[in-house]
Write a structure and sequence with these properties.
Layout: H1 8-24, E1 36-41, H2 46-58, E2 62-68, H3 70-75, E3 84-86, H4 90-97, E4 101-104, H5 112-117, E5 121-124, H6 137-140, E6 148-151, H7 154-164, E7 169-172, H8 179-183, H9 188-195, E8 202-206, H10 226-240, E9 242-246, E10 262-264, H11 273-277, E11 282-285, H12 290-294, E12 301-304, H13 313-318, E13 328-329, H14 332-344, H15 347-365, H16 373-386
Parallel strand pairs: 1-2, 1-4, 2-3, 4-5, 5-6, 6-7, 8-9, 8-11, 9-10, 11-12, 12-13
C-alpha cells in the first residue's frame, strides 16, 4: 500500500494492522511444527508471482497465502490462485504470525515488527530495477531487519550495499520476473486473445511512470493534451499498421482511449506486466523500470525526454538519467520517425545503441539471464524454510 501522508484512512489502517500484529505474535508459540508456510505481501505480480508459480509446480508441501490491505486485495482479486489474508483481520494475522517466511516486493510497513520481535523471516524481491528512479537510504532502511534481499546482479548487490547502506544478507539470484521473457515462455496468440489485441499488427506499448513528488508533472509526453496525444497515436498507428497499448502506472489515471487503434491496459486493472510486454514490438517510456524488463527481449526501447518524477533536492538524488540505453526524444515528429524506423528495421535499434545496451544489461543482470532466476529464488527459500 502506498501510504499517502495526508490520508487519514491510511494511518488508521496502519494503526489497526500494527495492533493486529502485536496481538498475533504470541500465537507463534502454537505454530504447527510440520507446516511450511510462505506469505506474499503487498503485490502479486512480477518476482512474487514468478516464485509463487514455481512453488505451485515444484513443491506442494509449501502452504502459500497472499496478504495485503483491502485496496490491493481488490486489485488482485481473481488474478491468482492463493488464499488471501487481510492486514485488518486479526484472525488472518494469526496465520501470518505462524508462518515461516514473508516475501515482499516493496515495503514491509507494520510487518517489520515481525522481523524485529520474532524469528519470522522476511525476504525482499523488489518490484522493478531501481536504475532510473532511486530510493534513499532512509526509505530503504527497513530492509536491515530482513533475513535476505534477493538482487538481480553483482553490480546491483554493490549498489544496494553502497547506496542504501544495507547490512542484511544480499543474495544475487537474478530477476525471476524476466525468466519467461528470456526463455520465450509466452504464447503470443493466447496473450493477444486474452487482452483483445490484434494479431496482425505490431504492438507499440507506451508505459509512463507516475508523478511521484512532482505534482505538476504531466504523464503525457511532448506537452500534449490527452486529445492531441490520442490523435497523434492514431495517426502513427495508421501509418505503421500497428496497434498502441497505453499502460498507465498503478498510481496514475488511465488514458481515455476510445479508438480502434489504441487499447488502455492500466497496471491497476492488468497487473501482469511481463505478459503484456511479451507481445510488444517496441516499448516507449520515460522513467519506468519497465524498460529494464523489456530490454531482455532485445527489442527497441524509446525514452521520452519528459519532466522527471522528482523536484527539488530529490531530483539530484533519486533520478539517474544516464541509465537510459535507447534514443531519448523530446519532439513528437522525431518520435514518430524513430518508431516507424524501428518497426520497419528493428535491427537498427541494436546497431545504434549497442554499447549502452550491453553496459546497462551487464549492470542490471550480470550473468543471470539464463532463465533460472526463479529456481534460485526457490533454492534460497528452501534453505530459509529448513534453517
Amino acid at each position: 500500500m502506498k501510504v499517502e501522508k495526508d490520508n487519514l484512512s491510511h494511518w488508521i489502517m496502519l494503526l489497526i494492522s500494527g495492533i493486529n500484529i502485536i496481538f498475533s505474535i504470541p500465537f507463534r508459540f502454537f505454530k504447527p511444527k510440520r507446516t511450511k508456510r510462505v506469505v506474499f505481501f503487498y503485490q502479486m505480480h512480477g518476482n512474487s508471482q514468478a516464485l509463487m508459480e514455481y512453488i505451485q509446480l515444484h513443491d506442494s508441501s509449501i502452504e502459500m497465502y497472499f496478504l495485503a490491505f483491502p485496496e490491493y486485495l481488490k486489485i488482485y482479486d481473481g488474478k491468482h490462485k492463493l488464499p488471501t489474508l487481510s492486514m485488518l483481520n486479526p484472525i488472518d494475522m494469526i496465520r501470518v504470525a505462524q508462518s515461516d517466511v514473508i516475501v515482499t516486493n516493496y515495503g514491509s510497513l507494520t510487518l517489520r515488527y515481525y522481523a524485529k520481535w520474532t524469528s519470522l523471516k522476511l525476504v525482499d524481491v523488489w518490484h522493478g530495477l531501481p536504475m532510473l528512479k532511486n530510493q534513499t537510504p532512509m526509505i530503504m532502511n527497513y530492509l536491515n531487519n530482513y533475513s535476505e534481499i534477493w538482487v538481480s546482479s553483482p553490480a546491483m548487490k554493490d549498489f544496494y550495499r553502497e547506496r542504501y547502506k544495507l547490512r542484511s544478507h544480499l543474495e544475487v539470484t537474478g530477476y525471476g520476473r524476466v525468466d519467461k521473457l528470456v526463455m520465450g515462455g509466452y504464447n503470443k496468440v493466447s496473450v493477444c486473445q486474452k487482452y483483445g489485441l490484434p494479431l496482425d499488427k505490431k504492438i507499440i506499448l507506451i508505459a509512463p511512470t507516475w508523478k511521484h513528488n512532482n505534482p505538476d508533472r504531466s504523464e503525457l509526453p511532448f506537452g500534449l493534451t490527452s486529445t492531441d496525444f490520442i490523435s497523434e497515436l492514431n495517426a502513427l498507428a495508421d501509418a505503421t499498421n500497428s496497434h498502441v497499448v497505453f499502460r498507465a502506472h498503478m498510481l496514475s489515471d488511465d488514458l481515455s482511449a476510445a479508438s480502434s487503434n489504441i487499447t488502455a491496459l492500466s497496471s491497476h486493472d492488468y497487473p501482469d506486466t511481463e505478459e503484456i510486454i511479451s507481445i510488444a514490438d517496441i516499448v516507449v517510456t520515460d522513467w519506468s523500470s519497465i524498460a529494464f524488463d523489456f530490454m531482455v527481449t532485445e527489442r527497441p526501447v524509446v525514452f521520452i525526454d519528459g519532466q522527471p518524477p522528482f523536484v527539488g533536492k530529490e531530483l539530484s538524488t533519486r533520478c539517474t538519467p544516464a541509465n537510459r540505453f535507447g534514443p531519448i526524444v523530446s519532439d513528437i515528429g522525431i518520435f514518430k520517425d524513430i518508431i516507424k524506423r524501428y518497426l520497419d528495421t528493428p535491427s537498427s535499434y541494436i546497431e545504434e545503441n549497442k554499447d549502452s545496451i550491453d553496459h546497462i544489461k551487464k549492470v542490471a543482470y550480470g550473468d543471470t539471464l539464463d532463465g533460472r532466476a526463479t529456481e534460485r529464488y526457490f533454492k534460497r527459500l528452501k534453505q530459509l524454510l529448513e534453517g
